[in-house]
């Protein structure tokens, strides 16, 4: 068979369902082979970056690998931002690129560049196929690496002449392996360490929303009552309505929930990724006692120096840890400060629930109404901008992987294509992308993709006519900001031109009604909210005056 046929058969063997992308001349053989597949669907996108974000959302929601495809040169460079985002946010992804013939790779030639080298810093592994017979091994290795904790992106390049070669090889059958578990003696030592603490606290990171970890974490909290602070990317690791949920931590400034860390004498760090929220922000003097539970050993950092590490499958390690704690036993913990922190933060979340302001709408009010419209398993995807900080702080979740935030690499333009990818995974759930007007326009062309595939998504744009997060940060640091404002399209005409429904919010009372109408409409919908970002400065000033009582 042809090498390109074998590559497709290997991807089928790996149960790849979707490949998102933009084809080119140099991967024409692969596309012809892919067209014959009965099990892999190719999703034609309008830009390679959008394809990568769609594959990332699929990977984060399923734990399985989707493909994103581009041709050589500019096709490959267009992929790279979404690939880097996937890799740093721990989403399994398979990147497939074309390349010119091998007889011209050694010299100056049209569109030729070293794509494999370019992708090495933003993938777990990158490889070029130079021999058709190696395709089964390369594909098996790629998917295994992509899915192995901590998951991420891998890249395969197929030169156009190699794609045409004949081969007699057959796909390799995937053999899954069991992840290791922490040493039982160390787990017992960890349990004793926790029991000896007076005010233990759980810091739950991205690893807690993968591989059944949240179930065991919830069981542990039910047994012990110990409070959980989740990072932006760990929302839903425990139900926010539970008394041990202390909501979300991750703002650069000191926040109400930070007081719980200040009061704690032991931080139980579970699945924590340092790219999410650097320890110098919550352990500035490096003196906090830390128990580290994760798939991998801790990063070396003077602000994060655990005295004990449990390395292995988080869910299995937590299950073993749970055997050392009995239901409803009194372990002598003083969790009163954590209860106070939860109550104080809850009051913040509800402060503008009944706000009736005309004109611009407060972020807190928007997110309160969004939470009321969205069901327990519905999915919100946040783009990057000032709105992300409000979503992280004010939008809380019942279930893991129901709020996807780009937070490791923090790439604008993620939410709209990500929502399209999410809709392929869960077509029966409400899928909401919240974007700033800047981030939305970065991948606005994917509105056509959503319409073509009849994605039942809603994109909500918070309109402020500027790069709001940059303005916020510059103001906080310098007391002023540079020129950051811009114009926007006529949103109704934009939506109409792409065949979308549109809803323009005019005051606070419109938010909930407009959002529900958007979800009830047939096909994709755009909801535009004039946002009151005067709240940014007010929040910074209020948190600057915060004093923790320990």
TrEMBL record:
<keyword id="KW-0808">Transferase</keyword>
<dbReference type="Pfam" id="PF00205">
    <property type="entry name" value="TPP_enzyme_M"/>
</dbReference>
<dbReference type="GO" id="GO:0003984">
    <property type="term" value="F:acetolactate synthase activity"/>
</dbReference>
<feature type="domain" description="Thiamine pyrophosphate enzyme central">
    <location>
        <begin position="187"/>
        <end position="321"/>
    </location>
</feature>
<dbReference type="InterPro" id="IPR045229">
    <property type="entry name" value="TPP_enz"/>
</dbReference>
<feature type="domain" description="Thiamine pyrophosphate enzyme N-terminal TPP-binding">
    <location>
        <begin position="1"/>
        <end position="116"/>
    </location>
</feature>
<dbReference type="GO" id="GO:0009097">
    <property type="term" value="P:isoleucine biosynthetic process"/>
</dbReference>
<dbReference type="InterPro" id="IPR012000">
    <property type="entry name" value="Thiamin_PyroP_enz_cen_dom"/>
</dbReference>
<feature type="domain" description="Thiamine pyrophosphate enzyme TPP-binding">
    <location>
        <begin position="383"/>
        <end position="529"/>
    </location>
</feature>
<keyword id="KW-0786">Thiamine pyrophosphate</keyword>
<dbReference type="InterPro" id="IPR012001">
    <property type="entry name" value="Thiamin_PyroP_enz_TPP-bd_dom"/>
</dbReference>
<dbReference type="GO" id="GO:0050660">
    <property type="term" value="F:flavin adenine dinucleotide binding"/>
</dbReference>
<dbReference type="GO" id="GO:0030976">
    <property type="term" value="F:thiamine pyrophosphate binding"/>
</dbReference>
<protein>
    <submittedName>
        <fullName>Acetolactate synthase</fullName>
        <ecNumber>2.2.1.6</ecNumber>
    </submittedName>
</protein>
<comment type="similarity">
    <text>Belongs to the TPP enzyme family.</text>
</comment>
<dbReference type="InterPro" id="IPR000399">
    <property type="entry name" value="TPP-bd_CS"/>
</dbReference>
<dbReference type="GO" id="GO:0005948">
    <property type="term" value="C:acetolactate synthase complex"/>
</dbReference>
<dbReference type="GO" id="GO:0009099">
    <property type="term" value="P:L-valine biosynthetic process"/>
</dbReference>
<dbReference type="Pfam" id="PF02775">
    <property type="entry name" value="TPP_enzyme_C"/>
</dbReference>
<dbReference type="InterPro" id="IPR011766">
    <property type="entry name" value="TPP_enzyme_TPP-bd"/>
</dbReference>
<dbReference type="InterPro" id="IPR029061">
    <property type="entry name" value="THDP-binding"/>
</dbReference>
<dbReference type="GO" id="GO:0000287">
    <property type="term" value="F:magnesium ion binding"/>
</dbReference>
<dbReference type="InterPro" id="IPR029035">
    <property type="entry name" value="DHS-like_NAD/FAD-binding_dom"/>
</dbReference>
<dbReference type="Pfam" id="PF02776">
    <property type="entry name" value="TPP_enzyme_N"/>
</dbReference>
